[in-house]
Specification:
By secondary structure, the protein is mainly alpha-helical. It is built from five helices and four strands, in the order ααβαββαβα. Helix 2 crosses helix 5 and helix 3 runs antiparallel to helix 4. It has one domain. Helices cover about 50% and strands about 5% of the residues. It binds calcium ion (2 copies). The site of one calcium ion has 7 residues, from strand 1.
């Protein structure tokens, strides 16, 4: 019963996400989404959380979408610094971007399940935004 409800919700959010996206290839920015929507957007295998590969896939697509001048790196204009990132985090290459993604994933994956639940993402955000 719960699975059915979750699946329906995911389908609805994904459909909404696609229709709102101006370019289908442009992955949406996750920072403005509620954590539950982040998960439903990235959760391809439908297990209710964001696996390492699912997040990496997004991170890679996002990198290429942000790299507007296609020089293989993101400067602070293409990818504004996120909370917790120092000025030396830009410019960043795709490799550095992926490394940062993995570090963030590990930091957020509190139960070490290799999959990020909405609760973990929410907690990770609160921690990053200066929460105690
Ligand atoms: Ca998943
Ligand atoms: Ca660039």
């Amino acid at each position: 019963m719960k699975a059915v409800v979750v699946t329906a919700a995911v389908a609805a959010v994904v459909a909404l996400g696609w229709s709102m996206s101006s370019r289908a290839d442009d992955p949406p920015a996750l920072s403005s989404m509620p954590a539950s929507e982040v998960v439903s957007t990235l959760d391809r295998n439908g297990n209710g959380c964001v696996d390492v590969e699912e997040g990496r896939n997004y991170a890679s697509r996002r990198f290429h979408a942000l790299d507007r001048n296609h020089d293989g790196s993101l400067d602070a204009e293409e990818a504004p610094l996120q909370p917790g990132e120092g000025a030396d985090a830009r410019p960043v290459t795709n490799q550095g971007w992926q490394d940062a993604y993995h570090a963030r994933f590990d930091a957020v994956d509190a139960d070490r399940s290799g999959c990020l639940s909405p609760q973990e993402i929410e907690a990770g955000r609160n921690a990053r935004n200066g929460g105690k």
